[in-house]
Amino acid sequence: MALGTKPTLAIVGATGAVGTVMIDIINGRGSVPWGEIRLIASPRSAGKKITVRGAENTVVALSPEAFDGVDIALFDVPDEVSAEWAPIAVERGAIAVDNSGAFRMDPEVPLVVPEVNAAQVHERPKGIIANPNCTTLSMMAALGALHHEFGLRELVVSSYQAASGAGQEGVDRLYAEVAAVAGKQVGVRGGDVAEALTAAGLPEETPFKAPLALNVVPWAGSRKDDGWTSEELKVRNESRKILGIPELKVSATCVRVPVVTTHSLAVHATFAQDVPVEQARRVFEAQPTVVLQDDPERMAFPTPAAVVGEEPTYVGRIRQALDFPNTLDFFVCGDNLRKGAALNTYEIAETLAG
Amino acid sequence: MALGTKPTLAIVGATGAVGTVMIDIINGRGSVPWGEIRLIASPRSAGKKITVRGAENTVVALSPEAFDGVDIALFDVPDEVSAEWAPIAVERGAIAVDNSGAFRMDPEVPLVVPEVNAAQVHERPKGIIANPNCTTLSMMAALGALHHEFGLRELVVSSYQAASGAGQEGVDRLYAEVAAVAGKQVGVRGGDVAEALTAAGLPEETPFKAPLALNVVPWAGSRKDDGWTSEELKVRNESRKILGIPELKVSATCVRVPVVTTHSLAVHATFAQDVPVEQARRVFEAQPTVVLQDDPERMAFPTPAAVVGEEPTYVGRIRQALDFPNTLDFFVCGDNLRKGAALNTYEIAETLAG
Semialdehyde dehydrogenase NAD-binding domain spans which residues (chains A, B) (predicted)? Predict the structure, then answer.
């Protein structure tokens, strides 16, 4: 399907955490290929007015008719809402680009990171294109570039995941916990973090299963077979699909850390051939969506707090493994709400618009 | 050398962060084999009174004579102090057990974790026994037990290291940073963590090279060749020496996290044979200094904040790697001031005393 010269773009979930970043990205673009930009949300948010590229835009309620005339519909909603409504958008003539987990592993739905597999946007038997999970996405621009040159074979990954991966609820909880422990001698013998949260009146129920302030939590997502979490299996299965390496060996450990925004990953990647650090650097420097921040002499390396709000993926601490042949160790930081979610979804739409 | 029935124990650096934990451990023991316990510190701290097992004990100044009559001297001081004074203690007749980095890789100094290689305390040509780095130590009780059963071959490790690994200065800095960001919408676009620290008047100079509150910092220790840090090389070299596997393959990425006490490690360990999860559990359950906390159904797993002040190493999230043969992934938490420092040093002394 060829899109018209001024296609209509819809944002479903326009008032949510990722939808808000999406509008922020659209407002920050020098130019956009869109004619109408239609904001869609739950009936509760319908009627709300949001400024998009200087013009006031009124949010409309999610309904089949809301997709009439839409060329591309971006879905930033929970899995079950996408599962129901993306096919409806397609029936009404739109291409659905979905940021939920509902369709990612469907063999008839491409899973796209434009730097890695842009051409797959055109192979969409169901009319749906999926956007990867934010943890996987945080390393894909960097890994895709290396894979293209050197042939990726194995991946051992540990994550340092931000609270905003659990939505606004996660951010609010982390802020509340930090406020509750501030000024207290906790995290030491005789100063229990969990007790400080209870004393401050915080509800025991938390999106993180354990205190997150002054702590790390080795659990993200839901429970899967054999001790794995859904997040860890997504890193494995989505990496394989995006990179087109069905036999890629992957082990991931996903850990939540008290960071508000930006996921980080410690990556141990083995290739089909030797990868000298200088060659890896050249590959990263040639990739426009990757920023190399790696100067041990000046102690320059990326940290998540410094990458917040940035579009590129930051890469540093690049080392050739001392004992593992053909293997690089490096550290990568990517804003999980931007490249990890809204930005990549929007880039898929830009790719479709040509 | 056989020790007398009531050997004299000296603690050098008795007023420091680790020395204080050492006295806390001694005070918490049901019984101790020592006759005199002598507290030694810099002349600045001499004369200070500290209660040890119910009796007031006066700190004496570091001098050659301070070691007269001492059977075992525990050193919790910086590298350069140990390098100078441990040999003096030996000259005066003591066995020196050193918690600094000064002697760890000396081939004539055993590097001891009592659960793993206790017998080596008796092979000490220089009269010195070294205590490992806290990051390495955090996983040694668990890894040593697995190695004994299954034969360790390869190790890929990512750390989540606490601020107290950088001493009291590190703890104070983290508390100050947490207080500076509390109640502020930072770590999001338009809310910079570094600016919040500056606005709160915190000095730019920090032991962590970058903000640690609401951040993680992929740098610990000093710069070594080819992009590696001293901490990462310690994990490699000390693991090889303690486990007695000179050819062990190791890649470590050391990352500081905003946790006060207790180091955590995500471990990807490959063995000479298949290790079913149930067999790994049995090995951990049989190791008295390891606590198994691993029940995915109840979302039970260790976190550093919950392990503070505990003597054992906590292990959870045990999974058989899906794509790597003979490989386990697991998560381990150990109090870096206890097992990671004072406790292991003290256990070496207990081993010497029989």
Answer: 8-124
